[in-house]
């Protein structure tokens, strides 16, 4: 199967039905032992330092991993993607644009997905067959989520890792199923670990995955990863078709739509506080104003840039926030 790069989660059902192997360039970038090389490639080619690290990482990952075709999300994701795909086209990469419509009307979502199906010459019947197949994998990922927030056996990082990997199923759905079944078996045989604080993580997946182990050392656990969970489409089984599935997907739409699902999870998972992660130079940081205004829960906003580990200042802020949450909980 031909590889096709992704700048973010898109209707992979269509790509798989068309005979492609989706490759999430974000995952290649962030899991690399030498992730900085991808940033360096972009900056040597003229990308400014004052630009989101993820965009530069995607660019470098695309050029260095023999990706000849990509899907670029030009509406509903990063505001810099349009510029990114223009440069990639200059480098000879074939780009297929896709949009999550700002209107967030079902008929508009359906229109965009039908256009996408036409581009790849697949039928709705073929796409629904793939959707049903992927739902089996997504059910396994959902089980890991439940082992996190209900049974207290999976770690926050495991919750993050397997959900974020659902954007491209690690480039092999069947092998991903095997990995999921193994880790689920292992997790089920653990004893529960219950910490005093139950945290939610909202915002884009972190450049600094050590945040998960850091909070665990301070008597806290992440039991909710907002965007990663959306990548895994936990409500896909309830969607009557692919149009409704991507209409219900919260990440690319406005903050108020995201808040509905976040509030539901705050209540269901009995969260004590939220860490809102934003990336330096990203427009999504402005959403923090709306989130703090509308969510009745303590929220700490932290920002990442190039480092893939927490810096000393961020650690101090996290410690102070967790201490405050412990004091609040004990006072109740």
Number of strands: 8
Helical content class: 40-55%
> Helices and strands, in N-to-C order?
EHEHHHEHEHHHHEHEHHHEHEH
Spatial extent as radius of gyration: 19 Å
CATH class of the largest domain: Alpha Beta
Counting DSSP H or I runs of 4 or more residues, the number of helices is 15
The class by helix and strand makeup works out as alpha/beta
GO molecular function: hydro-lyase activity; iron-sulfur cluster binding
Cofactor: [4Fe-4S] cluster
Keywords: Iron, Iron-sulfur, Metal-binding
InterPro entries: FldB/FldC_alpha/beta
What's the short story on this structure?
With 332 residues, the chain is of the alpha/beta class. It has 15 helices and eight strands.
Task: Present the secondary structure layout.
Blueprint: E1 2-6, H1 12-17, E2 20-24, H2 25-31, H3 36-44, H4 53-64, E3 69-75, H5 81-90, E4 94-99, H6 106-119, H7 124-149, H8 156-164, H9 173-188, E5 197-203, H10 211-216, E6 220-225, H11 226-231, H12 242-247, H13 255-268, E7 273-279, H14 287-294, E8 299-304, H15 312-331
Parallel strand pairs: 1-2, 1-3, 3-4, 5-6, 5-7, 7-8
Helix pairs in contact: 2-4, 3-4, 7-8, 7-9
Organism: Clostridium estertheticum subsp. estertheticum
Family: Belongs to the FldB/FldC dehydratase alpha/beta subunit family.
GO molecular function: hydro-lyase activity; iron-sulfur cluster binding
